[in-house]
Amino acid sequence: MQQLEQTLKAALGAAIQQVFGQEVPASQLTLQPTRKDFAGQFTLVTFPFTKTLGKGPEQIGQAIGEWLVANTPQVSGYNVVKGFLNLEVADAEWVNVFGQLRQTPAGTPVPTGGPQNVVVEYSSPNTNKPLHLGHLRNNFLGYSVAEILKATGATVTKANLVNDRGIHICKSMLAYLQYGQGETPQSAGIKGDHLAGKYYVLFEKHYREQVRQLEAEGVLPDVAKRQAPMMLEAQDMLRQWEAGDEAVVSLWRQMNGWVYEGFDATYKSIGVDFDKYYYESGTYLLGKERVEEGLQKGVFFKKEDGSVWVDLKEEGLDEKLLLRADGTSVYITQDLGTAELKYQDFHYDLSVYVIADEQNYHMQVLKAVLKKLGKPYADAIYHLSYGMVDLPSGKMKSREGTVVDADELVREVVDAAKAATLEKGKTEGLTEQEADQLYHMLGLGALKYYLLKVDPKKRMLFNPEESVSLEGHTGPFIQYSHARISAIRRKAAELGIAEDADLTSITELHTTERELVQELARYAAVVAEAARTQSPAVVAQYAYDVAKAYNRVYTEVEIFREADAAKKAFRVALSAQTAQAIKASMGLLGIQVPERM
RNA sequence: GGUUGCAUAGCUCAAUUGGAUAGAGCAUCUGACUACGAAUCAGAAGGUUUAAGGUUCGACUCCUUAUGCGACCA
């Protein structure tokens, strides 16, 4: 397709040169797909040329169209509507495009000239709670963006920065010491991350009770919040941790260990993975060194109380705290350390942070601070800022208990897929284990597609019923289309019809076939676009368009009942390429596709 | 208070980055299985793109202002 477009653009340039005697830079010759209601496949907008060529838009279109039909074999016809010149490309040429497509099927790397060495950091959980719906959007986005960048030929490292230290985990630890009675994930029969979450909730409950009591005794609300005994104890515990207190550190190790087991199970279940783990407990000290470096270089300053700040007013930001007066670190301190470590490890030319848009300011600060420090890698940092997920009832709030748990949600979508498959699936012959894998594949396909089809930058609404839907613009619709094609290919194999059909005798196509070929030919452009904008939504839309186009072919033309053997073989080949495009693009989303369902 | 993002069919989302009559899905209504898989396909209906100005051959897209919702910084 790119070749065809190049040819057409060159021809357009030549046409203008010949007819009007003027040079038009190739960059101004942009072709766009012709709208469905008009004949043709490529459209040139002629309005922009009226000034330089001194003619009306229709006249220009007519003249160029006429010249092209006469002089360019690929152009079989044209029509002009106002300032739009629609070019019709002969079916034989589209068959040609299909032939080229088979040489580099969907899934072969698409070089774009973009970054070659990339780190994508995503997931990045806190260790005091299990993962929830918001993390799922993050995980699916991060995994998918990494795969998309890989598809452009880049070397990509998936990194997970675990927030394993700080006051939050101390809260869970404290509540566990007070109420846990030696409970373990094994003894309680719950996943480790959920166990830690249970004690975090317990902490909050008892802490709030203490605050309420203090307030009842006449203490002012902010003071009560700061001076409630449990809060003081948690802070004390954090200091002990920083001091390396053995009992505290060993409890910390134990509870985090449980949490990691739980996370691993969830990651495995949702099909995401990491090449490298970072732990904030291992980077915050390095961050403190960077702060010291900034002080020495004179780009940071110390206030009277001993706290360290950076002035970012010139960058349009504000003054920002980098180290507390007592010398303990804040979020940004450890982020400075992690950024440094990542660069030492990978020397990336692009470092993506998949983080919700509530941290836009924080990420601007991080980048600005690294620039102040003169770090060469500052410019390579890119914040993939995604919108938060809302529920029909509004925002997710842990205090109101409206947080959607990831493990539970996965269970629900898999159950829904199972119920639907038992009702209308074609799964006879599958072992029980294969069937379970299928339900998992379909349930997760529904969930992932639902979360990925929306532009990452935009806030989105999570509707539980729609997320398990299998019809319309959904993952299972696309998975179904693949399973359907698989059935075709099985039958073709039985009949001994090869998938590498000879195309020489194919000179005309059904409209739906031509449209499908056009879709298939877009794959490389779609991958490039998705990589450029770091948007899996682009790929999601493409997979849907391909499936939709195939389903139209499927109802409009016959495959095995076709009398013409060459056409029959062509349609089998077309089916095989479609399956490949669906599998490859869904793969970029982290969604698997079944052979039957 | 300061900074910033968003607003498109009843609902959830698109719109090739300034191009034609703004497109899909869900929901509603109507058709298509004795067939290669109906988790499908075809069709109907649904819009003053929050409002008012501006820029130009052309604006959902860019610029003002207003309204509403959100986030962040104290």
From TrEMBL:
SUBUNIT field: Monomer.
Superkingdom of source: Bacteria
Species annotation: Hymenobacter guriensis
Membership in a protein family: Belongs to the class-I aminoacyl-tRNA synthetase family.
Subcellular location: Cytoplasm
Keyword set includes Ligase: yes
Catalytic activity: tRNA(Arg) + L-arginine + ATP = L-arginyl-tRNA(Arg) + AMP + diphosphate
Documented EC number(s): 6.1.1.19
Signal peptide per UniProt: none
Alphabetically ordered keywords of this record: Aminoacyl-tRNA synthetase, ATP-binding, Cytoplasm, Ligase, Nucleotide-binding, Protein biosynthesis
Protein name: Arginine--tRNA ligase
One protein family per Pfam: DALR_1
Domain annotation Arginyl tRNA synthetase N-terminal: ranges: 6-89
InterPro entries assigned to the protein according to its UniProt record, in alphabetical order: aa-tRNA-synth_I_CS, Arg-tRNA-ligase, Arg-tRNA-synth_N, Arg-tRNA-synth_N_sf, ArgRS_core, DALR_anticod-bd, Rossmann-like_a/b/a_fold, tRNAsynth_Ia_anticodon-bd
Annotated motif 'HIGH' region, positions: 125-135
PANTHER family: ARGININE--TRNA LIGASE, CYTOPLASMIC, ARGINYL-TRNA SYNTHETASE
Domain DALR anticodon binding: 478-597
First-listed, main subcellular location of the protein, grouped into a coarse class: cytoplasm
Example GO molecular function: arginine-tRNA ligase activity
